[in-house]
User: Which sequence fits this backbone?
């Protein structure tokens, strides 16, 4: 029997958790620290923390908020946003992350996945794939859903798993925030 796991995802922008629809129309929800504590106390199995504008803004992840969050959360913590180098992996892990999620950085440099898996182990490397239907094909998007890479999603994901990604998070841009359930297709 497959075990169900509850893994909330905190999308963080400007130090606050935000929610939107189809990656747009973001509105403020709460403090990431308060929500992380709430989800931990409510029985979440793991927590994902995405600094959703770090790549688009060309900056590193909010490490101060990450440190505060990690100090209050005692479940596995996956962190992503602005991850472009092994030094970014190292910085985020030293701030308390258990796993590091990479999307745009891997699109620019797929070998980053292989390098990170060799240094930290595949269990630490999470591929985040922002996927949207374009002309009947599932395509990979970069920079928080802003840029269509033209890459077919399944092929890209398989390639990244072959490079060493131990987990994959598929973010459906088409159904994000619409409260219509999982995009099973």
Assistant:
């Amino acid at each position: 029997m497959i075990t169900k796991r509850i893994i909330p995802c905190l999308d963080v922008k400007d130090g606050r958790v935000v929610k939107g629809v189809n990656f747009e129309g973001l509105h403020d929800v709460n403090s990431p620290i308060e929500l992380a504590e709430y989800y931990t106390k409510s029985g979440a199995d793991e927590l994902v923390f995405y600094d959703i504008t770090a790549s688009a803004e060309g900056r590193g992840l909010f490490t101060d908020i990450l440190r505060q969050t990690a100090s209050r959360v005692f479940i596995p913590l996956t962190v992503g946003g602005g991850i472009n180098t092994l030094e970014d992996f190292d910085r985020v892990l030293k701030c308390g992350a258990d796993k590091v999620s990479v999307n745009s950085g891997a699109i620019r440099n797929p070998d980053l996945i292989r390098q990170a898996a060799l240094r930290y182990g595949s269990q630490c490397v999470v591929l985040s794939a922002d996927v949207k239907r374009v002309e009947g094909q599932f395509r990979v998007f970069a920079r928080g859903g802003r840029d269509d890479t033209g890459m077919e999603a399944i092929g890209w994901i398989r390639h990244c798993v072959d490079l060493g990604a131990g987990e994959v998070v598929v973010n459906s841009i088409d159904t994000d925030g619409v409260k219509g359930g999982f995009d099973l297709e």
Summary: The two ends are 22 Å apart (CA to CA).
